[in-house]
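Q: How would the C-alpha cells look for this protein?
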Amino acid sequence: MRTDARAELRLEADPSAPHRGRHWVVPVLRAHEAPEPAVDLVELLTSEVVTNAVKYGSAEHGIVLSVGWADSRVTVRVTDANPTAPVVHRSAPEDLGGRGMELVELLAESWGVESHAGGKTVWFTVHAA
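A: Here is the predicted structure in C-alpha cell form.
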C-alpha cells in the first residue's frame, strides 16, 4: 500500500450518506493498493460510523469523511456537528439494530472520539498490510 496520503469527502447528512461514503472510500483505498480484506473492513466500518453521524448529527451542517493511510494503517475520520460521543451498546442476539459502534469496537485496531468546537470527530484505524 502506498503511504502517507489523505482524501476527504463532504456529505449531506441524509439517509444516502452511508451508501455514498462507503462507495467513495473503496475505490480510494484500491487506488492506493490497500489489500482487499482491509478494504472490506473499512467499507463496513465507514458505513457504520457515517450512519451514526447521520442519525445523531446535525443535518444542517453535513458530514466530513476522510481517509488517510500511513505505516500500513488506514485511518477513517467522520466529523459531524453533534458534540456528543457515540455510545457502544451491547446488543442481544435478537436485536435488529444498534450494533454499529459495537462493530467498530470489535473490528477496528483502535478507535476514538475527538471533541472540538462545533462537534466531534469519530475515527478508527485498521491494519492494512
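The mean pLDDT is 89.

Strands lie at 5-11, 63-70, 73-80, 110-116, 119-127.

Upvote if useful.
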